[in-house]
Amino acid sequence: MSTYGTLLAMARRPRPIHEQGARTLRADAERNRERILAAAREVFAERGLDAPLEAIARRAGVGQATLYRRFPRREDLIVACFAPKLAEYAAAVEEALAAPDAWAGFCEFFEHVCAMQAADQGIRDILTTTFPTDPVVEEQRTQAFVRFGELVRRVQAEGVLRTDFVPEDLVLLLMANAGVVRAMRHDAPDAWRRFVGLMRDALRAERAHPLPPPPTPAQTYRAMLRASRTDDA
Fold first, then answer.
1. Angle at 227 between CA 224 and CA 232, to 5 degrees
2. What whole-number distance in Å separates Cα of residue 61 and Cα of residue 114?
3. Distances (CA, A) of 20 to 14, 24, 63, 177
4. What are phi and psi of 204, to 5 degrees?
5. Under a CB-based contact definition with an 8 Å cutoff, are residues 73 and 40 in contact?
6. Residue ranges per domain, the chain?
7. How many Å apart are CA 175 and CA 128, to the nearest integer?
8. Could you say which of 3.40.50.1000, 1.10.10.60, 3.40.1010.10, 1.10.10.10 is the CATH number of the domain covering 13-72?
């Protein structure tokens, strides 16, 4: 028999029962994982990052033991759910930097991330939290923040953005927008757009008035870290 014929015969040979069972278990585990992620995205979008994990398990149709086996910590589940959205946030910074008009790019970026918060209660929270145990996500966030700093300097160099604006002020603005979204989402779901308009005007250099000192980078990081410490209940 030729080499090809030998390989073909081996491929057609029935697999041992234990191999078939292992493949079935892996397929079941992957299906469970995808069900959990789909349910988590829905529940986090509706209730924010502190939503009860048992509610996610119920919606996914799995037991809590299965959820914890796939995602031992709440943070693991959050990162798996929202890594693509953090990538979208980073891409929005790059788009703003590529805009011919720096101020227009800055404003479009700010409105974009506020819209992300308004559309999803989980995103509302995740953009103002940090995940120190996931180095990949934190590196992505850090790089986006560095690039945002470049955008700030570019707009200030054009004389449009107030000179005392610092990159950490973005976190303040997103925390404020999160509060608007949380308080108004049922009665005035578009109120965040007015907030964006008010802040856009307030940030222009010609309207600038002296401000108190901004939070330091260390203070901002601690606030974001504190926001990430949600209970599992």
1. 145
2. 33
3. 9, 6, 25, 52
4. -75, 145
5. no
6. 13-72, 75-228
7. 6
8. 1.10.10.60
**End-to-end Cα distance, the chain:** 64
Its sign, for the CA torsion 183, 188, 192, 194, is negative
Which fold does the domain 75-228 belong to in CATH? Tetracycline Repressor; domain 2 (1.10.357)
Q: What is the pLDDT of residue 232?
A: 41
- Strand, coil or helix: 204: strand
Question: How much is the pTM?
Answer: 0.76
Mean pLDDT for 140-158 is 94
Query: What gap in Å lies between CA 221 and CA 132, rounded to an integer?
Result: 10
Structure letter (DSSP) for residue 203: T
Query: What tokens appear for 207 in the block?
Result: 């309207």
Gap between the Cα atoms of 122 and 116, Å rounded: 10
Distance separating alpha carbons of residues 76 and 29, to the nearest angstrom:
16
pLDDT tens-digit series, residues 122-147: 888 888 887 777 888 888 888 999 99
The CA-atom distances, in angstroms, between 222 and each of 155, 225, 227 are 27, 5, 9
Specify whether the CB–CB gap between 232 and 139 falls below 8 A: no
Q: Which two tokens stand for residue 156?
A: 């200030």
